[in-house]
TrEMBL record:
Source organism (scientific name): Paracoccus laeviglucosivorans
Protein name: Proline--tRNA ligase
EC annotation from Swiss-Prot or TrEMBL: 6.1.1.15
GO terms assigned for molecular function: ATP binding; proline-tRNA ligase activity
Family to which the UniProt record says this protein belongs: Belongs to the class-II aminoacyl-tRNA synthetase family. ProS type 2 subfamily.
Predominant localisation class: cytoplasm
Alphabetical keyword list: Aminoacyl-tRNA synthetase, ATP-binding, Cytoplasm, Ligase, Nucleotide-binding, Protein biosynthesis
GO biological process assignments: prolyl-tRNA aminoacylation
A single cellular component GO annotation: cytosol
Amino acid sequence: MRLTRYFMPVLKEDPKEAQIVSHRLMLRAGMIKQQSAGIYSWLPMGLKVLNRIQQIVHEEQARAGHIPVLMPTIQSADLWRESGRYDDYGEEMLRITDRHKRDMLYGPTNEEVITDIFRAHVSSYKDLPLTLYQIQWKFRDEIRPRFGVMRGREFLMKDGYNFDLTRDAALHAYNRHLVSYLRSYERMGLQAIPMRADGGPIGGDYTHEFLVLAETGESEVFYDSEITDLKFGSRAIDYDSVEQCQAVLEEFTSRYARTDETHDAAIFDQIPEERRRTARGIEVGQIFYFGTKYSESMGATVVGPDGNRTPVEMGSHGIGVSRLLGAIIEASHDDKGIIWPEGVTPFEVGIVNLKQGDASTDSACEALYAELKSKGLDPLYDDRDERAGAKFATVDLIGLPWRITVGPRGLANNKVELTSRRTGEAVEMSPQEAVSRLVEVYQPVKDAAL
Ligand SMILES: Nc1ncnc2c1ncn2[C@@H]1O[C@H](COP(=O)(O)OP(=O)(O)OP(=O)(O)O)[C@@H](O)[C@H]1O
Ligand SMILES: [Mg+2]
């Protein structure tokens, strides 16, 4: 993409309405525009990152054997009456009446619709295990939408639902989701710590929230500092192996890590003092085993091997896809702007032309641009007629992890400069070398998708 042909409405001033850094930077970088409280348009660069996050989620869901579907945003109230949640859900549900005076709603979550699909088409244990998921917009009429995409009213969520014959099989599905989430967040450059969450009325140990540590997080969290040393990494895992998934769950959840909802000071105080941490965190996902809560009330049963019908065992598992943009920025920025992790960056590299209009500099930039593209990289070429300082400020603000600076002085010796956004380190090299360095840098990102 050439910047002169792109649509990236960068703001010069700090927007007054933004209270936290991610919201401020997303507005300044021209990624989103608020349309109503908690409702946003996604401008091209915001959409690019949103799509990259979705892509990672899809790839990791596929790896775990989960099947994508797409359910409507507008749902019938009758389904929610069957589960009993229509009256329970309260003010957060956006209720709509159609022209025939039928009660509809904009889905805040999808347990009812997915259970309806299941009961219409599955009746034998032979079709299990089954996990269906979607990435779809949700609406929750939050009382205080704030912090930009972090707490919106309309937001994009991955929601997945497992269907299993037995409780043990459903718990394996739970563990499988935990593994796939660890991998997904790491590919986004995030450490998201599974923390024991509140099971609500259902109770039990079988819900974890994934939290990204950040000062601006809305949850208070308590954890054993050893947990931050854990890394899932590129280990190979067989998602069908009960033992392997269970082992990962144990590794990542055996140390103390809880939100204020489940915090237990007596247990916490048994951890050696130097390892006790109190901090704040952003919830970027949650996994939940709830058994037959919906299958019983909605009549989703399967015939088991013994010929008897039993309600199917279920769980639901969410990732806050649009919230993740905010969480990533909160975890990765400096005073100049965003620092995108390589796995989600909107463009892999920015090309800065120091002397726009100079024939040889222009053609060197064009050649570099073409070469990067031919290697499967996506560069943003700042071809504006602007001062170098302004161009640097823009690439820094929008957070591209790498910058290639091209000017007549360097070119005289066949040199350009490759600069890391994260470390600020700048190295002179030939344009060819810069391209091969970037191909190398992005190889792990490509490999992680395989
Ligand atoms: N209003 C929102 N705006 C953006 N993302 C959200 C919002 N509400 C929930 N999410 C994201 O969707 C994921 C799954 O939804 P879930 O039902 O667990 O949310 P929740 O526990 O009600 O979230 P919260 O406690 O933050 O209100 C959450 O982990 C979160 O990342
Ligand atoms: Mg939650």
